[in-house]
Amino acid sequence: MKIAAMYGDAAKDESGFWCSSFLSSGLFLKSADGIGMWHEYWNDTGWVYLEGDILPGASFTVQLLPELAPDFYLHGTVEDVAATIMTGAGTFANAVKVAYRLEYGVGEMRDEDGNPQGKMSSEMRGYVFYVPDVGPVAMLQEFYLFATMDCGDQPCPPEWVPWIDKPVELQTLSLSQVALPTRTRTWGEIKALYR
Q: Quick one: which of 106, 100, 101, 117 has its CA closest to 148?
C-alpha cells in the first residue's frame, strides 16, 4: 500500500518528499520473515518494520547502509499486540505497537571555529501502530540531536547541554480516512510496476 496515498500532503516536506523516518514512501512487503518496505528507486528492501515473531518483547536490530556508515542501526521492539488506537478514520482494535530507535552513529562535535569539542550521537525514537489487513494507522517519532554527548575532560558547550537526551523535533501521523485495500503481489509484479 502506498503510504503517501494514506496520509497525503501532511506527510511531505516543502520539497514534496515524504519526511518521516518510521513511515516512508514506498510499498510494504510482507513475507514469512517479517514486513519491510520496497521503494521504486532501490533494488532491494529499503527498510524493516517487523522481523521474526510478533510477540510482546520480540525485538530486532538491523544495520542500515553498511557500505556508507558502520554505526547506523535500526532497533525495533514489539510492545503490544492487542492495543486499541483511535484515529480520525475510527477506532482500531488488536493493533500491534512497535517501538523503534534509529541510531545515526557517532559524530565529532566542532565549535564555530572548527575546533573539536567531543563526540555526540543522534537518534530517532518513536513507535508505529499497525492494524492487521489495514497497515500503519498511527505514528510518533522524536529526533534527538544530542542523544549522547562526550566532551572528554573539557566541559561541554553550555548552549548544547540542555539538549542532551531531549527531543528537538516531534512528528505524529494518524490515519484520517479509511485505508486503501491491500493487494497481494509478488516481488516481480511490484518491480514491473516501475519498469
A: 106
